User: Fold this.
Amino acid sequence: MDLYDLEADGANGFLRVETPVVRAFRSAAENLGKDRFMNKVRETQDDGRYIIFYHSEDEPEVEAKEERE
Amino acid sequence: VNELRWDPTKKEWVAYATHRQDRTFLPPKEYCPLCPTKEGNAFPTEVPRPSYEIVVFENRFPSLVRSAPDPEDEGSALTPTAPGRGVCEVVLYTDDHNATLATLEVERIRNLVDVWADRYEELGSLEFVRYVFIFENKGEAIGVTLSHPHGQIYAYPFIPPRPRRELDAAGEYRQRRGACLYCDLLSQEHRDGRRVLARGEHFTAFIPFYARFPYEAHVYATRCVPTIAALSGDERRDLARVLKRLLVGYDALFGFSLPYMMFMHQAPTDGADYDGVAHFHIEFYPPNRTAEKLKYLAGSETGAGVFVMDVVPEQTARELREKIKSSSS
Assistant:
């Protein structure tokens, strides 16, 4: 799949239309600098103390690539 | 006994928590209470799951407790007492017993920054909490009782004396110069360069001009940001990278996993305005002055509060910087 498709604009010309590849890249790039946060699940132990489990979301492909570099 | 006693000679609270005397002390690995509870294992740990990523729980042996009883000793007008009220949490960095903060992937450290920020916000929002202190004691030389990679958080009902002194100094500097003390110190370190250890886009690790320990390192945010919770996503990621570089360098210094005390200083949560005064930073204090020798707090350091150093920061920074460079390449 390419970055853009061409679609007829109805006036003998073409419109450049983004493919899902562009949207996925843009979304991943925007998320790189944004605050994101781990999910957390809070439970209470038998003795009344709390315990919180933090777990991360799936990482976007672009972020994973950046780390490998 | 779980109470605070006031020392009027130093104007400081001392916390007494006598139940801590019985806490678990360096158990064998198979009985580590911070490891996951394995299926079919007869030894239930603090974490009732077979695996985990990052976990926070209330300390079983807290120095301060949420519902503190009235002090057993009333004290006097000169030496009053107060309930030892606060929150003590344990932060488990990973379920891998043999890992350390230095061996974690940058992404895991980045996640840990999120967790630290979350704990700062949640604990700081409690009505009785005035200061959220995030720290780690690592290594038997520091006196840790459990070797599993973990840190701690104390939510104090007052601003502890050391952060208080720093805030007072920064407040006076701001009044006199109209600038942030920490921003100016960081600019000076950047200009000089001799003590800089690792420089990222948003954070810098350096040995301060006035270091009290040979390999003491401070990690300052470039932006004048008061708390860890106020860091952007980019800043959190950069902090993780700088921490990783510093810690890998530490471990390369003498060829073993270096013990240290690590703690964070940031804005108190007492409702006052600390913009331009509190500047989020992390400080590391490894006790080693050589591979075999530790720096002890002796007479001058303990009795007079004057640290005497037998090596200058410019020299130790050069050694550590080389280790960081060679470890990163």
